[in-house]
Automatic annotation (TrEMBL):
Gene Ontology terms describing biological process: L-histidine biosynthetic process
Activation/inhibition comment: Feedback inhibited by histidine.
Job description of the protein: Catalyzes the condensation of ATP and 5-phosphoribose 1-diphosphate to form N'-(5'-phosphoribosyl)-ATP (PR-ATP). Has a crucial role in the pathway because the rate of histidine biosynthesis seems to be controlled primarily by regulation of HisG enzymatic activity.
UniProt record similarity statement: Belongs to the ATP phosphoribosyltransferase family. Long subfamily.
Classification via InterPro entries: ATP-PRT_HisG_long, ATP_PRibTrfase_cat, ATP_PRibTrfase_CS, ATP_PRibTrfase_HisG, HisG_C, N-reg_PII-like_a/b, N-reg_PII/ATP_PRibTrfase_C
Name of the protein in question: ATP phosphoribosyltransferase
Tagged with keyword Cell division: no
UniProtKB keywords: Amino-acid biosynthesis, ATP-binding, Cytoplasm, Glycosyltransferase, Histidine biosynthesis, Magnesium, Metal-binding, Nucleotide-binding, Transferase
GO cellular component term, pick one: cytoplasm
PANTHER family according to UniProt: ATP PHOSPHORIBOSYLTRANSFERASE (PTHR21403:SF8), ATP PHOSPHORIBOSYLTRANSFERASE ATP-PRTASE (PTHR21403)
Gene that produces this protein: hisG
Main location group: cytoplasm
Length: 283
């Protein structure tokens, strides 16, 4: 049995649980439980505060964990990371009051900066040769300038609306973060094997999320152009239609390229384009 720690309740919880479920692992979860056992995979899930996850994985209380890179690096344990998971993307940024002049990070020399990330920020400032006074606070960092506690802040930003609502302007990106899978460095051979099985499933789920299955009809004359637009995994599947001079083409397309590619497919004469979600994608 391998133990995986995930955030009990917060921004990472829902996406962590759905990733495990999409890996085909079933379990009953309830908000008041501290742990739960999967019914079809030798996995136990522990529900913890995100800040505790790196330490518990390092100590072996949990074998694996899902946590933001921001928390992992702040805890000084970046070496535990095994796999980026593609959700909870955010950045750790420096921000100053909107009216304040700011040209470069050198302007922060000798200033008071409030943050919950003194390690990451300290490393960043040292790398830029800036010395500032860091005030470590655990929450509501964005109000520090307005109550006179700090000249600037360094906090997590995603949409930017919290900064905006507090009269602050984002001036530097200090660190980019997303949720990652972490693992204890000395897993037994059995647990290492279970970790590899989990990683294989997570990669298949992520690949499927990034791609769509596409089916379309095209005139034979456009086939080369269609093939060039839809290279697929190896090459597209091409089958003749009952109507002479037409073929059906099946392939996969990356979600990021999707609209651009469909516009071009229409331009070369493709019709009846169907796009379907992919459940798993094994390379
Ligand atoms: O209770 P526990 O300690 O487990 O949770 P927590 O309150 O410490 O963490 P939580 O649930 O808020 O965040 C968990 C992780 O989600 C963080 O460590 C980040 O990796 C990631 N994440 C992604 C974020 C955000 N987006 C985010 N927007 N974490 C925090 N925020 C906050 C930020 O602190 C600021 O207050 O949201 C506000 C900014 O958001 P915007 O959209 O207004 O810019
Ligand atoms: Zn936390």
């Amino acid at each position: 049995m391998i133990r995986l720690a995930i955030q009990k309740s917060g921004r990472l919880s829902e996406d962590s649980l759905s990733l495990i479920r999409e890996c085909g692992i079933s379990f009953v979860s309830s908000s008041y439980k501290l742990k739960t056992e999967a019914t079809n995979f030798p996995l136990e899930i522990l529900y913890l505060r995100d800040d505790d996850i790196p330490g518990y994985v390092q100590d072996g209380v949990a074998d694996l964990g899902v946590v933001g890179q921001n928390v992992l690096v702040e805890a000084g344990l970046p070496e535990l990371e095994v796999e980026p998971l593609g959700f909870s993307k955010c950045r750790l940024s420096l921000a100053v009051p909107r009216g304040e002049a700011y040209a470069s990070v050198a302007d922060l020399q000798g200033k008071n900066i409030a943050t919950s990330y003194p390690q990451i920020l300290g490393t960043y400032l040292a790398g830029h040769g800036v010395q500032a006074n860091l005030h470590t606070i655990s929450g509501s960092v964005e109000i520090a300038p307005s109550i006179g506690l700090a000249d600037a802040i360094c906090d997590i930003v995603s949409s930017g609306s919290t900064l905006l609502g507090n009269g602050l302007r984002e001036v530097e990106t200090v660190f980019r973060s997303e949720a990652v899978l972490i693992a204890n460095r000395s897993l037994s051979a059995e647990k290492q094997n279970l970790l590899e099985q989990l990683q294989f499933r997570m990669q298949a789920v992520r690949r499927a999320r990034r791609n769509k299955y596409i089916v379309l009809n095209a005139p034979v004359a456009s086939l080369d152009a269609v093939k060039a637009l839809l290279p697929g995994i190896k090459s597209p599947t091409v089958t003749p239609l009952a109507e002479q001079g037409w073929v059906s083409v099946q392939s996969v397309v990356n979600e990021d390229d999707f609209w651009h590619v469909t516009d071009q497919l229409k331009a070369v004469g493709a019709e009846g384009i169907l796009v379907l979600p992919i459940e798993k994608m094994i390379s």
